[in-house]
Amino acid sequence: MAAQFDINELHWLLDIVQSIDVGVVVTDRDYRVEVWNSFMENHSGRSATEVAQKTLFELFPEIDQAWFTHKVETAVMLGTRAFTIWEQRPNLVRFKSYQPITGLADEMYQNVTILPLRSTNGATDHVCLIIYDVTGVAVNKRQLESANAQLRELALRDGLTGLLNRRHWEQCVEHEFARHMRYETPVSLVIFDIDHFKAVNDTYGHQTGDEVIREVARVTRSMARETDYAGRYGGEEFVVLLPDTDLNGARQFAERLRLAISKLRVEHQDRPLQFTVSLGVACLDTKMSNHAELIERADKALYRSKESGRNQTTVFQDE
Ligand SMILES: Nc1nc2c(ncn2[C@@H]2O[C@H](COP(=O)(O)OP(=O)(O)OP(=O)(O)O)[C@@H](O)[C@H]2O)c(=O)[nH]1
C-alpha cells in the first residue's frame, strides 16, 4: 500500500519538533540554518527568523570548526549517524544551564546526534543536529566521581593526622622496595615515637594528647618532601620513607625534625606544653629480602635512642 502524504501529519510532526525538550537544528551543506526549534530559541535567545541562513559557526563561534566539519562530512559520506558525548566534549554549543540541581554546572552538558538527511532524489543536502541536555546526568556522575575520589583518599589516610595510614604506608614501602631492588637507588626510613607520651595523656588528658599527635604530624608533613611518604604507624609512632635519600641525608632530616618538634608548644589550660621524640634511621640495601627488614632495622635504632635517654636520633649500624 502506497503511503499517503497527509498534510495533518506534517503539522503534527512540526508541532512535535517544536515542543520536544531537545534541540533540533537542520542546516544545509554549508552549515546555514534552515530549521531551529523552540528549544534552540529558548536556550540561545535567538528566534528562528533571526538565525535563518546564518551558519552554525557564525552563531556558535565556540564550535571547533575543523573537528566538527570532519565529523559531519564523514557521517554524510558513510550515510550514518555520528555522535558527540559529554564525557569527551562537555558541549557542542554554549548554553547556560538552568537546572536547579546544578550549582556545579554553569553551562549545559550535551550529547549530540548528527543525522545526515537524504532528499527524495537520494542526495544528502541537509544535516540535522539533535542536541540533548544531559546536565543532570553529567553533574550526578561528576559528583559521584568526586565523592569516590574523596573516599579513596580517606581510605588511605589516618583520621586524626591526615598522614598516610599504616596499611597504605606499608604498600608504599613495598613499592619503593621493589623500585630500589631494580634501580639500586638509595631509600631511607626514619621512624620516631613521642617520648613519655603516656604521661602526656595521663597528666593533661587524651584531648591534649591528640593535639600533640596532630602537631607532630603537621610539622612532619611540612618538613617532608612531596615525594616522601609520611605515615602514622601506630598511636604515637610515625614513619617517613625517604626515596632517593642515603643514610647521611636521612640522619640530617631526622635531626631537623627532632629539633623542630622539640620547639613545638601545645597549649594546655593556657600553659605551653613541650615534648620530644626519639628517632631511628636505617636505609635499604640490596641484601635485604623484604621491606620488613628495613622497618625492623629502623625500629632497633629507635629503641636505642629510647634506651640512651630519648630526644635523640640513632642510625642503624650493621653489627
Ligand atoms: N591521645 C592519644 N593517645 C594515644 C593515641 N594512640 C596511642 N596513645 C597512647 O600513647 C601511649 C603510648 O605509651 P607507651 O607506648 O607506654 O610509650 P611512652 O609513654 O611514649 O613512652 P616511651 O615511648 O618509652 O617514651 C599510650 O598511653 C596510648 O594510650 C591517640 O591516638 N591519642
How does this model look, in words?
The protein folds into two domains: 7-142, PAS domain (Beta-Lactamase, 2-Layer Sandwich), CATH 3.30.450.20; 157-315, Alpha-Beta Plaits, CATH 3.30.70.270. It is α+β, with helices and mostly antiparallel strands and 319 residues long. Helix 8 packs across helix 9 and helix 9 (206-223) packs across helix 10 (247-262). The protein contains eleven helices and twelve strands. A hairpin with a 4-residue loop joins strand 1 and strand 2 (33-36). It starts with 6 loop residues before the first helix and ends with a strand. It is elongated, with a radius of gyration of 33 Å. It is 44% helix and 21% strand. Bound molecules: guanosine-5'-triphosphate. The site of guanosine-5'-triphosphate (GTP) has 17 residues, from strand 6, helix 8 and helix 9.
